[in-house]
Amino acid sequence: MIHTSGNWNPLRALVVDDERTTLRAVSAALEDNGFSVESFTDPAKALLSFGSDDFDVVLSDFYMPEMNGDAFLKEIRAKNADCAFLFLAADSNLKQAIELIQQGADDYIVKPVVVHDLIFRVRRSLAAIRRRQSETNWQQLYAAKDIRQTEKMIDQLSKAINQTGGYLWLDLLKEELQHPHDGKYTVSTEIGDMVLETAEVQKQILEYITLIADTNRFKLDPETVPIETMIQSCVDFCRRRLETELADFERPLSIGTPRIYPDGMITVDMQSVYDVLNELLINAIKFSPARSRIVLSADLQTVGTHSQLAITLQNTAQRGSLTDEKGELAVGIPANYTETVFDLFFSTDDFHTPLPLEKWPNGAGLYIARKIMKRQNGWLRTGTGTDHTAEQAVPVVRFTIILPVLPV
Q1: What is the DSSP letter of 226?
Q2: Does position 264 have pLDDT exceeding 50, yes or no?
Q3: In this predicted structure, what is the pLDDT of residue 2?
Q4: How far is CA 128 from CA 5, 100, 162, 252, 299, in A?
Q5: Given a cut of 70, is residue 340 above it in pLDDT?
Q6: Residue 206 to residue 327: CA distance in whole angstroms
Q7: The pLDDT of residue 57
Q8: What is the SS3 assignment for 42?
Q9: What does the buried/exposed string (b/e) look like for 80-111 if buried means 16 or more CB atoms within 10 Å of the residue's CB?
Q10: How would you classify the pairing of strands 223-226 and 265-268?
Q11: Cα dihedral angle (110, 115, 116, 121), rounded to 10 degrees?
Q12: Measuring CA to CA, how many Å separate 285 from each of 115, 279, 288, 311?
């Protein structure tokens, strides 16, 4: 938490440098500008002070005999992810500066320190953190409302920007573009690579934001079909996918459909149902053991005075990275995640590589799939259960498409 500046509650700074001359100069500059400063030549002692007190900003040398700056930064970030952290660099090593920003530093200052540059960069870093904290408080205030999905998009974009060096590249680029030669600018490969990497990541995230926005706008072409036609179309689609484009993953398909199809009609855009089924097949392959079977079933359910068709894809569950309410690694989707998996950009560390025909990767798939079904008065739900049809009981994950049935 950043303190409010003022004589009664000054901003607190921790300064670490094994060079006493620099340590005194930086500390004096900060104190002259209203900061309360604690300074150390030993990073280990500085960590002890940091752990028992509350600081707004840390300024650290990089090359220190007891502990290098990157290790010191890691220790600070483990204790406090929000405190401003600036490196005191012996030279303007651009590549190193970029790496430090990517590791979690907020900025760097080249020695010998110029007071007005030091204060400007410290205050700029603190202002950026205040903005982030303000946004977090705003998110917490509205966490229970639908705009939490918009907040996730903002958070994802922010993470993508910070992981590629934030906007440090803009400051560095401005410095290099100050002196054109023969009407041309010269840009170092480090800055050029950083700009391209940042732009590619931001482009990807913005494309997903556009895709999600378009989910509310793209045209649906609903048709009314008998329940039998609806079920058989889903069976044919899943069998064709698993036997052709997804055949290399060796997932046999078992079918569990009614012997006698019930009466009733379904009004739905069939292509959108195929897109949702495709997403569910991809998930079933990703999060099930090799060569395990996928089961497609369908049944008619009665809810009050209304009937609904439930089309379920089931796969064998395996232990992943999700934890249950006791904090233990769960098999399949634990109960505390049955809604979370539908959050925008929700993903796990279990499977990073997109599969062929994966239309909505990077944690957007289930969110979009549910949104598509909701537009057609349907729903998409999930849960973990047990399959007792085999010789031994097998834990399974089920995703179920729900569609309202029209009376004949």
Answers
A1: E
A2: yes
A3: 46
A4: 15, 17, 12, 53, 54
A5: yes
A6: 34
A7: 94
A8: coil
A9: eeebbbbbbbeeeebebbbebbbeebbbbbeb
A10: antiparallel
A11: 50
A12: 58, 10, 6, 18
